[in-house]
Amino acid sequence: MTDARVPASVPAPAARALRIGIDVGGTNTDAVLMDGRTVLAGVKRSTTADVTSGIGVAIQALREQSAFDNDDVRAVMIGTTHFVNALVQARDLAPTAVVRLGLPASAALPPLTDWPDSLVTAIDARVYLAHGGHEFDGRPISPLDPDELRAQAADMRAAGVRSVAIASIFSPLNAELEAAAAEILRAELPEHVTFSLSHEIGRLGILERENATVINAALRELGAEVIEGLATTVRGLGITAPIYLSQNDGTLMDEEFVRRYPVATFASGPTNSMRGAAETTGLATCAVVDVGGTTADIGLIEGGFPREAAASVAVAGVRTNFRMPDVISIGIGGGSLVNSETAEVGPESVGFRLTEKALVFGGDVLTATDIAVAGGRAQLGDPARVAHLDPAFVARVLARIDERIAEAIDRMRTSPEPIPVVAVGGGAVLLDHTLPLLGEIIRPENAGVANAIGASISQVGAEIDTVESIVPGSRDTVLAALKERAIAEAVAAGADPATVTILDVDEIPIPYLPGGATRVRIKAVGDLEGVSA
Amino acid sequence: MSWQLTKADLPDLARGAAFLGTGGGGDPYIGHKLVENALGEGSITILDPEDLADDLFVIPVALMGAPTVMIEKLLAGHEPLTALRHLEAHYGRTADATMPIECGGVNSLIPLLVAAQTGLPVVDADGMGRAFPELSMETFAVYGVNASPIALTAERGEHIILDTGADNRRIEQLARALTVELGGSAAIAEYAMTGADVRRTAVPRTISMALSIGRAIREARAEHRSPFEAIAAALAPTLYSHVRELFVGKVVDVERRTEGGFARGRARLAPADAADTGAFEILFQNENLVAYRDGELVAIVPDLICVVDQETAEPITTEGLRYGQRVRVLGVSTPALMRTPEALDTFGPVAFGLTETFVPVEELAH
Questions:
Q1: Any domain includes A485
Q2: Which residue range or ranges hold the S-Me-THD N-terminal domain (chain B) (predicted)?
Q3: Number of domains, chain A
């Protein structure tokens, strides 16, 4: 379709409402151009070290496959595992301090209790216990001690801390001490130091909330870097549509939100991949294996949505209390290093450097992709460069990959009921067409870009977080009004009213306040108006 | 026979204790980490109740207060031991062992914290056989051991000794009022008793039972067997031998309120494919108290009503209940000493203001 074929006298065709969905994995950047539920174009390119230039390349490739007017693009939706990969691989993390306000309470389990040592080292963690915190009823446990905080700030400064997490006991009910402590520390620390306050990140349960806050703090610098790069890239291509990033629950967040809360993107990769897989196979219930460059993520789709973890979720070995899809990750991906003696795969990966490091691409590192090519499962690069590998060794590695993936799915399903297995992601070529214990693997059409399709069906949401008086008999009325408000705000955020539903209702009674004071959180989501799939 | 408990046992024990918490008792994770940090590579001696010398002096310890507070305002670490020391000083007698007051939830682990800090052995028994919201809801109390005197303390190290003689309800009221003042959570030492008293009044072998429930769930998952059958198999040889599946479905509504220091509320469940009308209902006061299916009673306190993840059997607390969760509800029978008329007066339906009379779960749900 070119302008030249359209006579000047004929009115231009009605503007299309297109979406670009992009999934940036550790190894591949996938992109789709969507019109409603139709995939107009789908491409896979290598993730680049800067993340963003790979996105630029992918968008250009979409344009080559199916030309589009920049003005017809209504939204660019990006899902990225960049932040969670940074954490899992313990790289690009800012030197981070965590200050817990609550002494003399809480000293028996200091911050970072239960963290893997490697991660504590990777964030150059500085841990401080300070006075402060509230009781459940709002009384102070002890007042802030500004001199204590200043001394801690001096230690942070000397240690080169660049990001600070602050968690105060009962801050979800009273946030003032976290803000006050941040003020005191900010005055003592260089201007570039960022602050993450736990009441903005998590819920009651100080260890989990604090953990999530520390992770967020360690990712702040990377968050700013990534979002600036994304905006520059997309605008540079002449696309002016809003840019959204996928959150853990599949809803979208805008640029400013990403800058402040990079941790909210954490499970978006698996969420998008699972929802994309469900979308493309039409299966309402299935196990989804998303094999990327660095990890294989395994989850269950029930009724089209990812099964949610029942309670706390461990991320890179750290317990948090987000609502997250129940996903297990194992260190097997297309870029995983293969030990030539033990035949073990991963967890180290060449990541986005697959196309320069892997043997088949002319590199000198033996990766899982090389094994897949040698074993005839994948046709990539130059097979001659892996012809020297011992077939028995190749078979052993491939069997090991199948076995470990099958084991992980089996652990996930726990019920002996048979469940269809859908494999997606660029690394899915590593797998045989059947798995031990589980049988045949379904590879949906566009399987390679399921994550990008999942990103493109993302929705917008609104969360009401308020304190309401709930007395006997008033609950239904109060909740109904709040649900209505949440729906209205989701619509205001761009959701199509016909598609808005209540995703989550959470009530926390605040003890010993008169009138049944209750903290209520309600989340409503719907498809983006005008671009809904 | 006594046995040694090590760090490696703690995850199983914590999971089993969460199951026995029947929705309450507080998240054992915190207790697990406290014990792990204090224990290191050491071990704790667990004493079987049948082996206790008649005059062995046992001081149980626990935390009391709101679970929501315990996961937010963590311990300074010394509190349970401080409470025990103050009660020893009050009696003028050193404890030979400690013991759980409550085997469900975090309190199964608090005596182990003291044991890890001091080397004191722990008696494999408790006074609730599950979790209950009140200190007076004890088989100890039912069969003649008084809660008084009780030592309370909190992070500042302040301590209070309360003595109400034989009035266990009154001590509950006073201790709870003090706990609110101490910030909603306090460490306590109470129900000091002899080895002979333990054999007469305690629910036996509940630490080892929690451990075997936790182990059964873990091993079943690892071996891809049904964790529910594994739980039933683990309980079959115990005093909790009847396990019934009461419902499978999703949480469609959770209503909570805080009254008098207790988290009360109700959860409605529906079959996973139905609209938002609850076919199954659970009332709770910290712990699950009573369950109805289509309005019919299917299980009632003191029998155990355990809500677990539909597939993994991971126990879910009343605090952790959330809209949309897929769950399975199990009913578990309790030992005879928890179902006598005097026991039911203390922690049966009437003690929670319920109008139903107690009927054993094995007679209600088939």
A1: yes
A2: 9-163
A3: 3
CATH level 3 topology of B238-364 = CV3147-like (2.40.390)
**Closest B-chain CA to A513:** B258
Provide the 10 A C-beta neighbour count for residue A454: 32
Q: Which H helix or E strand runs over B280?
A: strand B280-285
Task: Report if residue A117 sits inside a domain.
Answer: yes
Q: Give how far A222 is from chain B: nearest CA, Å.
A: 30
CA proximity to B121, closest of B14, B195, B210, B34: B195
Is A310's CB within 8 Å of B33's CB? no
Mutate to test the interface with A, among B74, B82, B312, B321 (most CBs of A within 10 A): B74
Does a structural domain hold residue A343? no
Which range marks the domain in which residue A252 is found?
3-86+225-265
Question: Is A437 a domain residue?
Answer: no
Angstrom distance (rounded) from CA A292 to CA A184: 43
What are the chain B neighbours of A169 within 8 Å (beta carbons)?
A: 72-74
User: Distance between CA atoms of A308 and B321, rounded to whole angstroms?
Assistant: 12
Per-position pLDDT tens, chain A of length 533: 333 333 444 444 566 889 999 998 877 899 999 988 889 999 989 888 877 888 999 999 999 999 999 999 989 999 988 888 888 888 889 999 999 999 999 999 999 998 999 999 999 999 999 999 998 877 899 999 999 999 999 999 999 999 999 999 988 778 899 999 999 999 999 999 999 999 888 777 899 999 999 999 999 999 898 888 889 999 999 999 989 998 877 778 878 888 888 988 887 877 888 888 888 888 878 899 988 888 898 888 876 678 777 556 777 888 887 767 888 788 899 999 999 888 889 888 888 788 899 999 999 999 999 999 999 998 888 999 999 999 999 999 999 999 888 877 876 664 556 788 999 877 888 888 888 777 888 988 777 788 899 888 767 877 776 667 787 888 899 999 989 988 998 888 778 899 898 877 877 775 534 456 677 878 888 887 766 44
What is the rounded distance in angstroms from the CA atom of residue A223 to the CA atom of residue A48?
A: 16
Distance CA B106, CA B91 (A): 27
What tokens were used for B89?
A: 């000083």
CATH code of the domain covering residue A182: 3.40.50
Please say whether the beta carbons of A91 and A118 come within 8 A.
no
Among the candidates A220, A237, A256, a domain finishes at A220
Minimal-distance CA residue of chain B relative to A141: B183
B221/A411 Cβ within 8 A: yes
Residues A108 and A72 in one domain: no
What is the phi/psi pair of residue B347, to 5°? -140, 25
Q: In terms of C-beta density within 10 A (0-12 exposed, 13-18 middle, 19 or more buried), how is residue B26 classed?
A: buried
Nearest of A108, A138, A264 to residue A196 by alpha carbon: A264
pTM of the model: 0.78
Examine the domain organization and report whether A198 and A231 are in the same domain.
no
CATH number (1.10.150.130, 1.10.3470.10, 2.40.160.60, 3.40.1610.10) of B3-204 reads 3.40.1610.10
Give me the residue spans of the domains in chain B: 3-204, 238-364
